[in-house]
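Annotators were shown the component list below and the corresponding predicted structure, then asked to write short factual statements about the assembly.
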Amino acid sequence: MAHSSSLPLTFLLILVCHIVEQVNGVWPLPQQRDVSADRYILSPKSFSFTYEKDSAAQSGCFILDAAFKRYFSIIFPDFNDGPALRRYHVWLEPEPFIVSVSVKTRGCDGYPDEDSDESYNLSVSEGQAVLTSVSVWGALRGLESLSQLVYQDDDDAYFINKTEIVDFPRFAFRGLLLDTSRHYLPLHAILKTLDAMAYSKFNVFHWHIVDDPSFPYQSRTFPDLSNKGAFHPFTHIYTQSDVMRVIEHARMRGIRVVPEFDSPGHTQSWGRGQPDLLTPCYKGSTPSGSFGPVNPILDTTYKFMEHLFKEVKSVFPDSYVHIGGDEVSFSCWQSNPDVRTFMENMGFGKDFTKLESFYMESIMNMTAALNKTSIVWQDVFDYHERIPQDTVLEIWKGTTEKYYAEMSRMTKAGHRVLLSAPWYINHISYGQDWRDSYAVRPQNFSGTEEQKKLVIGGEVAMWGEYVDATNLNPRLWPRACAAAERLWSNEEKTLDADLAFPRLEEFRCKLLRRGIQAEPLFVGHCKHEYNDL
Amino acid sequence: MAHSSSLPLTFLLILVCHIVEQVNGVWPLPQQRDVSADRYILSPKSFSFTYEKDSAAQSGCFILDAAFKRYFSIIFPDFNDGPALRRYHVWLEPEPFIVSVSVKTRGCDGYPDEDSDESYNLSVSEGQAVLTSVSVWGALRGLESLSQLVYQDDDDAYFINKTEIVDFPRFAFRGLLLDTSRHYLPLHAILKTLDAMAYSKFNVFHWHIVDDPSFPYQSRTFPDLSNKGAFHPFTHIYTQSDVMRVIEHARMRGIRVVPEFDSPGHTQSWGRGQPDLLTPCYKGSTPSGSFGPVNPILDTTYKFMEHLFKEVKSVFPDSYVHIGGDEVSFSCWQSNPDVRTFMENMGFGKDFTKLESFYMESIMNMTAALNKTSIVWQDVFDYHERIPQDTVLEIWKGTTEKYYAEMSRMTKAGHRVLLSAPWYINHISYGQDWRDSYAVRPQNFSGTEEQKKLVIGGEVAMWGEYVDATNLNPRLWPRACAAAERLWSNEEKTLDADLAFPRLEEFRCKLLRRGIQAEPLFVGHCKHEYNDL
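Structure shown to annotators:
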């Protein structure tokens, strides 16, 4: 800053020794944190990451080595600017500061899963930070917290306060959904979202990759699905290489990628590249020319789905797959005489929920045979009591009262559940609507302690009706951060949104500084504004 | 596009000769337009702008020469890409196409004002487009329409259809307000907004430059106003040079810059750099330490305001200045014993609206003495019947019923009015809220034809509580376009939002293509998506 470069050394030292009252917060709030007013000056010149001798991960650990590189630049954002730093270097010989990482178990080239241990302890004292964790995934979370502890004073010097953190997530599944069918999102928009997810400790990217409007996933097995079903067969698709990049970018940040191939509804775009997959709708006794959900009465349908999910298994390493099952309209099935005959033969009468259940059961059997855990939208449970026990149910409908009732019923039936209904943040309104997300209490439904434990987490959903790369980032951030804290932090310590507000404001400025186009929460400014030309 | 580069010539020629049904729309809709299915291929190699012999503007006309440069790149966005074009050049020898411009009056280095004639006629036929207008401002509007008539087919060849347009604005004042006090907007964000305004034929940039939270305007006369009142005295200010750039950028696009220096309320940030300007509030018989609106009882206040508005006059060439006058809280004035004494001496009794009127009258006299037309917010009219006749009243409050009643009263009193209340598009909601803006009918209040004529236009307002450079563009565009069409086009021809929808969708894709981060209106895609890395 122009006005400080001419400060005399004595004045600078006074500045350096001045203890600022407000130290940097961490978002989401760690489970336990003790911060002292003592602080240490940091310099990129004398700052390093290292592995403890007894750590199971050592130099060469892909995931952590890459994280050290990332977090160095995040911690010292001015590093390449030069002049400001050199100023200090002339005057102050910085003490070394070593971040020493110790991981109990190996897994340096692993893939995160539902049982990943993300806990970590972080102890910052003079000249060092000691970060210990069970897994590399916990170490990643600890590095993120560490990076948020570092701050700059008005003179751009870097500091960190003496701090003790014991931290672990409240829920194992902290997801964020992007919808790449209603609008195509360029690869870099997805990668940037993964970056920002890691900053908020989200750990599941739910990729709602295809739907009615378009089929951008370029399938190895069925290339016509994107050739004919994408908005454009070359510019608006995800190649296998694109998908790999997303998965790898996510993995390096401890984020799982759960793809969704939603059927039997939401499949209009599938039909363009896969003849006979969708049910022909009838007007009276003749086909109307339009098509309904996937045709559940043909063997070819199940063969196709089996091939598709085999491919999905080979492409997406996650142990979960989302198979949809929501919002199936029965009118087309009802109009089709072959479907009606099938219903009779199967003894379903006129109850089309039985046909849907029949279909979904077949898909769930397929994914089970592939050793995948299925996630389905709540509709499947609503229609169908005999869902395999390990299927995860995702709640997307209704007011608080209604989703609490649903959670009670589902967990009573022994199912694990994911809560998304109150976090459909594609719905926008004027003002600080993050407060609504923050007020969600995912376990306050009526049920036993055992039932509460079946809530494995939740998901923020950014559906794409009105969202593409032009407005994705400012709609997501920092609004999604509210759910991130609810899913990670201790609820009792984070009930008050007013208390959270200044921390969230500060975190939003950090996001800007990291290149995330996070919108403002209210009147004010950040030292470093978004300034992308 | 990869799949078309290998097309044989014969096939290409078939494509070229194929008449597409849908020709490009123009937004806002011209007053009269006849389009033929005949179309002409355009090539940047053989396309040129020229001045008609009898035109008052000739080569060397700053404003139009600069516009020719701008619109050439807008019309041929692939020009610098090379390969696609060269393809055509090998195969087709393009016929020359000359845009010939004729302007009746000089003014090539002028500044637009309330009487600027923005009408134009545009006639596109084989090998030429003839654009005639009274003023350079009309020529700018015609060039914008021309640029929107050009489209590319699937093979990226450029076309324009035979077209006749007779066009003029419905309202002379078509404004857009940005608020640079609640959040600072970097210069480039303002310049980009001006670009997009020109695409929608907005012609007034209402710069709500200062307010309570910050005073980013760097005053020549009172540098402490921004030194102490800006969010940061170096990074969060508009220097005189910045302001010049904004004015010049706007002028080149036929856009007026009307600055707002809102007082006596909304001035907290002013007080930081100008001691004794604000009213000290009292708690009982002692000052509370906080301050209220501008202190209306001191001579020094009026001297300061006079100096400030003299500077404003010298900096901003527009004949209008916005002097605010909204939302004055009386509680601080009421608490102050000196103010109460002043009230008694003036015979105002306990009616603080009289004090406010007294203050606003003084400011209006100042601006009148400087030959500026004042715009004030409706509050000033509500409190004060004796407003100078040429003061423009801006309506910002209430439902349709209320603002219609206000418009009736104001125009009955002979005042010119600006409508902004239904166009506070900082207020967002889920879905296609542009339809609400589009449904506004600014002259449907009860009143005589003479009264209706006093509606000089309206303004879209993007207040800054929740808006900064991170989300400004997708919130403004294409939502502001709805008001742009309402203010420019014939109302009877644009009543149906469903009819407007495809044209607006197409216009939104054009905005993307021109680098404006305009958000989607609904599910779908543009050939060229926003892809800013």
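Statements collected:
1. Chain B has a mean pLDDT of 93.
2. Chain B touches chain A through 47 residues (CB under 8 Å).
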